[in-house]
Amino acid sequence: MRIAVLAISLGAAAASMAADPAAGMWQVSDGGPVIELAESADTPGRLDILWVDGADMSIAPGTQLGSATATPTPGLYDCSAWIDPRGETGRKRGKAQFTIRLDSKLADSFVFEGYQRGTVLRLSRLLPFWYRRPVQQVDTRPKGLDGARRIHSHKSYLEL
Questions:
Q1: Sequence-ordered list of residues with C-beta below 8 angstroms from that of 116, at least 6 positions apart, any chain
Q2: What is the pLDDT of residues 98-133, one digit of tens each?
Q3: What is the DSSP letter of 124?
Q4: How far is residue 103's CA from residue 82's CA, in Å, rounded to a whole number?
Q5: Alpha carbon of 148 to those of 7, 49, 117, 144: distances in Å?
Q6: Phi, psi of 7, rounded to the nearest 5 degrees
Q7: What is the per-residue pLDDT across 36-61, written as a single tens digit (0 to 9) for each?
Q8: Roughly how many angstroms between the first and final C-alpha of the chain, as a whole number?
Q9: Do the beta carbons of residue 90 and residue 112 sit within 8 Å?
Q10: Are the beta carbons of 71 and 79 closer than 8 angstroms?
Q11: In the chain, what is the greatest distance between 2 CA atoms, to the nearest angstrom?
Q12: Which of 32, 76, 95, 125 has CA atoms 20 to 30 A from the CA of 14?
């Protein structure tokens, strides 16, 4: 009897240690699509980003949107996706590169932070100075507005 109890407790401890903190069901923004971060069966240490439900009916539930890899910083994941979950309908936008940063105080939320990586050739640098930047884009939107909340967890914040 003691051996059975010991085996069950060791199995439960191993299962709880193997679970990634970001794994689970998440709803993007307020009322956005529902995605699942599930541990990959193919590659250990990688999470698959799966579509569960959303306004875009052309995406079948269970479709893999991309993948997330844990970084050396706890709670930070480097992600690449073919469909951007930050869009209201999850529409395709080419390959999106972003990070997921879990909130250190609330285990039920994370923030998307997009980034770009590549080479840029600026032909405008060949023009005279007064033609270089006639139009500038301004973005004063604060960081940390795009994110997700874990589904089926207790709310650790107050809704007004």
A1: 97
A2: 888 988 777 788 888 888 877 877 776 777 666 666
A3: G
A4: 25
A5: 37, 13, 24, 11
A6: -65, -40
A7: 999 998 888 899 999 998 887 878 88
A8: 52
A9: no
A10: no
A11: 85
A12: 76
Q: Which two tokens stand for residue 148?
A: 């997700």
Whose tokens are 């979950």? That residue is 85
Q: Which two tokens stand for residue 85?
A: 């979950």
C-alpha distances out from residue 14 to 4, 37, 75, 121, 150, Å: 15, 20, 20, 51, 23
Q: Indicate the SS3 state at residue 82.
A: strand
For 103, what's the count of Cα atoms within 13 Å in the CB-facing half-sphere?
16
Q: Is the dihedral of CA 91, 93, 99, 105 positive or negative?
A: negative
The identity of residue 109, as a single letter, is S
